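REQUEST
  id: r-88c1
  op: predict_structure
  target: Phosphoglycerate dehydrogenase
  payload:
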Amino acid sequence: MQQFVPIAYFCPMNIKIGILDDYQSVALTMADWSVVQQQAEVTVFTEHIAAEDVLAERLQPFQVLCVMRERTPLTRALLSRLPNLKLIVSTAQRNASLDTAACTELGIEVAMTSYVESGAPELTWALLLALARNLAAEAGNVRSGGWQTTVGADLQGKTLGIVGLGRIGTKLATYAKAFGMKVIAWSENLTEERAHRAGAELVSKEYLFRSADFVTLHLVLSDRTRGIVGARELELMKPAAFLVNTSRGPLVDEAALLTVLQTRRIAGAALDVYDTEPLPADHSFRKLPNVLATPHIGYVTEQTYRVFYGDTVKVIEKWLAGQPTN
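RESPONSE
  id: r-88c1
  status: 200
  body:
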């Protein structure tokens, strides 16, 4: 069942605001909602609602929706079933699962918040380190009463392959250099000059997957990049190599990745993103011993949430006052 946190104050305007997918029940603690609460009824949805019919029924009364990035897709079909909706506030600067064209046609205002960029690269590096030193397994050994069972890998002297050398990829290159790693990079539009500025060597896609000891993905998901890592690329990887994906699940052919992990064609993978989120309870990624899986927490930090919800409150306050939100 979905859980709700209704605000006790009801105003004559009877404006209803819904906060979606607040998994940790922290939205109301990350910003000062007092001005908003004086003018509107705020409901917090702490559990994800996937079924469109159920979602449409739950959201039908709301004039304002606050969405956490791409957790709940707001499609044309769903939006057309929400006649009361006037404003959507989405965290971060981009939300691929929000149909902005439909919003324009339906007269729904859309506003975005600011973003903190440090969370994703920091988690990526944490996952890479955890893979190299078998941290999940060894921590499990201690918790269960055991002791050492694995031998870790050194990072110094190893090669990091970065697919997508944008802001996050560039930050990863900096981390890798600090650990004494060689950095190679590829993306369709990457130039030698940009790669050199980031401290990386531009290589072909095939060379990257064949040569890297760790491959990390940092691309925006689009029709062009969907499935950009498939069976061919995964088969090129070294048997001792690891894949890290904290960007978007569909960048990788999931079936092909499962195959190379189940057959131990590669050493393992660290994954924070998936084709379907939340990840189904019976999914193999939850069970494979050579997978380190986290629940899309790359941007889930206190600093980021305070920016997300602080900006959300500011937008709603402007909207309630009849001021432009952008």
